[in-house]
Amino acid sequence: MRRRREREQQILDLIRSGDENVEELAQRLDVSLSTIRRDLQRLSDSGVVTRTYGGAILSQPAPEASLSSREHINLQAKQAIAAAAAGLVEDGERVLLDVGSTVEALGLRLKERRLAVVTNNLALVSVFAQSEGIELTVLGGTVRAISMGTFGPLAEMNVRRLTVDKLFLGADGVVAGRGLCEATQEQVALKEGMVQQAAEVFLLADASKLGNAHQPAWLPLNRPWTLVTDSGATDEQLGPFRTLPGVTVVIAPIEAARTRTAPSLDDALD
Questions:
Q1: Same domain assignment for residues 258 and 221
Q2: Has residue 98 got a pLDDT over 50?
Q3: DSSP labels for 86-119?
Q4: Do 117 and 6 share a structural domain?
Q5: DSSP conformation class of 52
């Protein structure tokens, strides 16, 4: 019984990371197809997963956390990633900043720079509006209060009419070879437009998001891009990304970020 429960938890973890096929699950866990099918049926009967042709998916996505609640999760990792990402930005560049707490941390480190900034991140608008060196463009659209960002057809139309040197994306999760996931298709649609308009693409994701597939809307990343993550990421998490063609991995040392004074949104508005 204990072994079965442990295996079922492993199945759920694998499904979250994108392994939804019966054959893949059986191979990963080194058990028979019939064993996997029985396990999936039990999980389906309990309402945890929904059976599909040849496999299963999680029955419900994880609840989406608000921006204010996410700002304090994995704070040191996010500050480390923000510091590393800021080092990738050159003065005079045109950068596009997505929503998310890690991208917000990056924006706070760029407020004294000389840049053209395009963003749908409403948490950063008042920060950049007070900066003399920032030329700010805000993507209009429908406001999602939970993420403090603009989305929808108007934002998508706006982003198609500009180009940027560098794009810094956030995400709820990212799986090597599959892409990044979000809670809604409208988020993914805007991110897709952002990716198309940027010369370089950077995804800011702390270690907890690597291999995380808990949301239902997906954006494949079918072009060269850079993953900026923190030193808490394991070799097992990083290995699949390092083997992908066109993907560069940047590791931000958490210890280095601890020695720096991390700006806060309140400090930026003083």
A1: yes
A2: yes
A3: HTTPPTT-EEEE-SSHHHHHHHHHHTTS-EEEEE
A4: no
A5: E
